[in-house]
Task: structure prediction
Amino acid sequence: MRSRTLRSPHNPAVKKAVKLRSRPEKYAPTLKEPRGEVLVEGPRPVETALRSGIAIKSALVTEDVLKEERHAAVVERLTRLAVPVFVVDRPQMARISGTVTPQGLIAVCAVEAKGLDALSPGRDELVVVSDGIQDPGNTGSIIRVCDAAGLGVFVSLKGSANPFTPKVIRASAGSVFSLDIVLADREDFLKWCSSHGIPVVITAPEAEKTVFDFDYPGRAALVFGNESRGVSAEIRSAAASALKVPIYGKAESLNVAATAAVAIYELVRKRRAT
Result:
């Protein structure tokens, strides 16, 4: 395994990683500029990026973690692909890492968001949509659920947390790289749904019908709204159905990630049963 040890914090590879960490929104894909760069931290997300064919431009690793089998295997694969791998000390890794306990492996990846033209009504029978979800942990968790449930796409509407930031990538355990991530504004998204006959289904705690009672029409755009405000008025007015996850116990509510997990799996179950 060939790698290069970096001692100076002014090395271009270290400086680039620090820039991506300090201002991730500046370098991540956006609606206007779908190509960008992101930091990916930890063996599992980096493995997922490799499996998904994501272009990895460089990697930083600490000497001690190379003794760990999983890390070493990932780094070995990176070097076989001619990805530049740099060994840094722990203080430099701590400066770059966004976690309290750095995992000792960080990769710089080139990524690209998709547009609505990447959606296929025949293939993407259930499209999960973020309409203003702000918390990166919630966004990443929902993307991970989509991946686990066998879905192929996640739509992030303007004003939602960017799916390509390090916190979202970490919360998704790398599932961001397994799906087509589509960025769109609400107007264009609703036009796409209308032109392809895709019903918009929203989740709302005040809805009368539960996800378990819903007669799934075979395809839908399932929209989850902002943590405090819920689904936007624009999406709500276009919705064909509103659903809720029933509360049987004393809890006041479920957060959006928990609601999404139940709703997504229930609709996937209904689809697979037909």
Observations:
- The mean pLDDT is 92.
